[in-house]
Amino acid sequence: MRGGGAASQLARKLGVDLVDLTRDGNTTQGVVADLARAPAAADVVTLTAGGNDLLGGDLPRAILRRLHQIAQRIQPLAARVVVNTIYDPSDGDNDVGRRELGLSRLATLALRRRLNAVNSGLVRLARQHGFLLADLERIFRGHGVASTEPWFVNVIEPNLAGATATAEHWCELLRSD
Asked: What is the pLDDT of residue 22?
């Protein structure tokens, strides 16, 4: 559904214009490059990045280094910034992760360790820069790909219900800020 993504829904809720730099499948390297198209100022910025880097095998240190570069680039926009943890489509179930991603048991465990490390780094990044933190990993819990009400399509992309829950959470965070 066009305009159903979390960023589009948030813009409508807040009554602001949207400059949408999101792309399914993007990585932190892509976000760094995409920031060249960002406006010089913004009211609100949402940062959801790192999941595709994890799936591509990048190490947490490299992902977090790029996320810090992104944070430094968006800090001067004088916007309220919402940084998002990375959700887990398997709901913490390694068997689901192995089945959906076709990974070995060891590779699944390594991916989980890297996910936890990046999410911990995202929490620190938000604190360090004074950004708001949306714990999407917690919000999406119980809505993984094997649940009765999944919030995903194509294993890792949020569906309309997931995008709506995300936009509503962002709105609550921004209104309580």
From this structure: 85
DSSP 56-101: TT--HHHHHHHHHHHHHHHGGG--EEEEEPPP-TTTT-HHHHHHHH
pTM for the whole structure: 0.93
Sign of CA dihedral 170, 3, 119, 26: negative
**How would DSSP label each residue in 117-134?**
HHHHHHHHHHHHHT-EEE
Please write the tens of the pLDDT for every residue from 2-11.
678 999 999 9
By residue count, the chain amounts to 177
Please state, in angstroms and as integers, the Cα–Cα distance from residue 48 to each residue in 28, 91, 96, 116, 163, following that order: 9, 18, 23, 15, 12
